[in-house]
Amino acid sequence: MKLRLDDLALFGGRPAFPAPVHIGVPNIGDRKRFLKSVNDILDRRYLSNRGPVAREFERQVAELVEVEHCVATCNATAALQLAIRAAGLTGEVIVPSFTFPATPHSVHWLGLTPVFCDVDPSGNIDVDRLGSVLTRRASGIMAVHLWGRPCNVDRLAEFAAAHGLKLLYDSAHAFGCSAGGRMIGGFGDAEVFSFHATKVVNSFEGGALVTNDDSLAERARSLSNFGIVSESEVAEPGTNAKMSEVAAAMGLASLAAMPAFVARNRENHEAYQAELAGVPGLRVLDFDHRERNNYQYVVLDVDVAIAGVSRDVLTDALRAENIMGRRYFTPGCHRTAAYRDRVHAPMPGTEELAERLVVLPSGTATTPRDIAVLCQVVRFVVSHAAEVAASMSDQVRAGVEAL
Ligand SMILES: Cc1ncc(COP(=O)(O)O)c(C=O)c1O
């Protein structure tokens, strides 16, 4: 228990955790089931190219998110590119500025131009600002259901239809979530999930394009396999985005355990909310409990004016304690070296969130005790905000930032 300021690791105390507590530690499903499946795969000698395990994974994903088609891929970034190609996008694609860099990168790598649009206070693309970034070169929007909270899907569909734009969703965070009671996966022209190791359901690396559009699905499927459409025909230049059998086996084991993963995430989220309730200036972002949520991300909003301590000071203090909160998605894609030379408009919504939010550890590797200890540190830092902020010399900060 931290009682005095110099109990904080930042000021020489013993860290609250002996080893780093990371966010996104993978959820592992039924190991025996997975290993048996791997053995079967080896016995069959069918390792890739849409084998029976990948097909079963696709079937189960499509069923869970209530769509017609699922194309399983090696990762979500590749699936985003398939979606862009299969939907026939050209020129500019509007993307939110507050997202993981894979969203704009997937557009850029295909030789198209990502055009950033600011986000609203929820962190999702601000539909009211779309008009101000729309040009005649735009062919589509790629929106992101940030941290599993749905975009305004109705208004986005209206805007896209009114301007003749395709609508894609980067739903990397939103597997198992719903919008207005409908499962995420069936919105827009296509949606893309990530099954990366850090996601609620993982296949080591993996992703999926899902859609109800038959021809888009068929084209994406062929593009994922070099553009091959028959033994002697390649319809167009494709790529190799296929999911391997062993990845699909992990995905199936993970899917089978998903209810337990989500339940645990929910318990963690509730524990954070209870532990931090009433701490001035802090708010654990809530979920809309009328929707289905995967509760995968615990996001803390720090209002420096009330807490007396900034998100950065709090995060640095936590890191010194071996609590590795992450400042997602700071500073906003438009301010990273990859894009800042060509983005000149300020994105005030993104810039504000990029200064306030920190993602905290959750998932099945995070124990109730971890959360209790972590929150005790948070409460201590906020209750000693003035002293902590004042005592953090430049030297200490530099040391922490290097962590
Ligand atoms: C919003 C978003 N889009 C895309 C990706 C890329 O996913 P993958 O690692 O499966 O390529 C991520 C990864 O975390 C993400 O957060």
From TrEMBL:
Keywords for this protein: Pyridoxal phosphate
Residues recorded with modification N6-(pyridoxal phosphate)lysine: 199
Enzyme active site: 199
SUPFAM superfamilies: PLP-dependent transferases
GO terms under biological process: polysaccharide biosynthetic process
Highest taxon of the lineage: Bacteria
Gene3D superfamilies (UniProt xref): Aspartate Aminotransferase, domain 1 (3.90.1150.10), Type I PLP-dependent aspartate aminotransferase-like (Major domain) (3.40.640.10)
GO MF, one annotated term: pyridoxal phosphate binding
InterPro entries: DegT/StrS_aminotransferase (IPR000653), PyrdxlP-dep_Trfase (IPR015424), PyrdxlP-dep_Trfase_major (IPR015421), PyrdxlP-dep_Trfase_small (IPR015422)
Family: Belongs to the DegT/DnrJ/EryC1 family.
Protein name: dTDP-4-amino-4,6-dideoxyglucose
